[in-house]
Amino acid sequence: MPTTTGPVQPSGPAPVAAPQAPPAASAPPSADRSAASSLNLNGAPVRLEWWERLGGFLLQFRALRILMRVRMVLTWVSLLIVAVTLAVSPVARTVLGAWIGCFWIVAVCFWLARGKTVSWGMTSGFFALSMPWAGAVGWLSFQVAAAARVPVSQTASQVVIAGVVEELAKLAPICLVAVIAPGRVRRLLIQDWLVLGVACGAGFMAVEEVARRLTYVLGNTPGLQLSKAVCPEDPAGIVECMHAHTFSLWPFSDAFPGPATYAGHAIVTGLVAVSIGLGRHLWWRARHHHPAFGVAMRCMALGLPLGVLWVAIVDHMATNSRSFNISWTSDEPVIKAWGATKGEAPWPIVGTTSSMAGSGQGRGWLLLVMLVVAILLDARVMRMGSYARSLSGPGGGPTAPQGMPGGVVGRWGADVVEV
Asked: What is the pLDDT of residues 290-335, one digit of tens each?
């Protein structure tokens, strides 16, 4: 099983992931048994977590390995069935297009984060876990609305309750892993937080957008019938006419155009998660600076995730409070910011935050910038930690100390190479 930690040097390098070296063939049986619970890297003893020991134990059984192969075969068969369904059914093509778009966002972010330590299996697992969790979040929103005695159809429920509950609850899969595997979460790099956050938000968004498209295409309520009266009859035309979330090969676009936009759960949750990773990095770096400057850095480390989360909640509120009016003289609808709340934000601080933060514009580009920052900071951590670039491939692991390049020119030159 791989481990994910590194030796601690006097200069205080951050712990990063590194695979466990294969045991020597001449090692005695007692050494093999002790390696099941701990290992030794460069003189630093490291204890494996329970899930690592459990995984190593289960992989010893041939039946489990056979089941894993069967699962792989069933996965490819399922993909073939889905591909055929998409080819022959316009409704399935329109509805499942949202799932494909969300999955594409995760795949692109995973590929761009070149220095990550999380595997594709872990990332896709977060994506899959977030889909059933989306139903639980919907149930939780109903319970909060019932406790507040506010019908879910009212604007207060759709704007305030949905915005707060959903933005907080989407991070639950990461919190769950932090509880059952705290050591692994402590060793996540900044890029890992971004990738996992995007996966959590994309899984939630996949369920929400699939359900939205099903409602638009198959719904027969009076309100929908009136709105669909001016739309084309084909499923794709109905979805476009109803201004549902759109997806394209460019995954970082603002999904809902208008005076107040929302970049989508994948982008927004990715921003919140990467701010947590960046805050942890600032907290660690604070101890290497002057005490006064270190205090400022740790205050920033605490305030950054809270601030980004608040902006995400405000973006969600602004999107849910927009009003759409059909114009009989133009093909484009009339979109009003805060139209559902009579042209004003629920509270002045919400409106001020939305205005100062650009009303939701540019969140995709901001996530891309944060990814570049994460790559640079993680690369410096890895160089200071004396680890090879390949952390999980064959032959990866601890290497001779590399250290930081000398001088300002050397350090910035290394950063340019990383970018």
From this structure: 888 889 999 999 999 999 999 999 999 998 888 776 655 556 667 7
Q: Which two tokens stand for residue 164?
A: 């707060």
Cα separation values, 194 from 1, 368, 371, 376, Å: 24, 10, 7, 14
Residue 263 burial (C-beta neighbours within 10 Å; 0-12, 13-18, 19+): buried
Tell if the pTM clears 0.90, that is, is over it: no
Q: Which residues contact 186 (CB under 8 A, 6 or more apart)?
A: 15
Q: With contact defined as beta carbons under 8 Å apart, do 200 and 126 qualify?
A: yes
CA–CA separation, 160 and 157 (whole Å): 6
**Axis-axis angle for helices 120-147, 162-169 (nearest 10):** 150
Structure tokens at 67: 């089941």
Least confident segment among 7-11, 51-55, 292-296: 7-11
Tokens 């290394």 locate to: 414
Tokens found for residue 363 = 């969140």
User: Which residue's structure tokens are 């009579």?
Assistant: 342
Tokens for 170, please give them: 């989407």
- Residues 154, 343 contacting (CB under 8 angstroms): no
- Alpha carbon distance 270, 195 (integer Å): 7
Q: Which residue shows structure tokens 């099941």?
A: 36
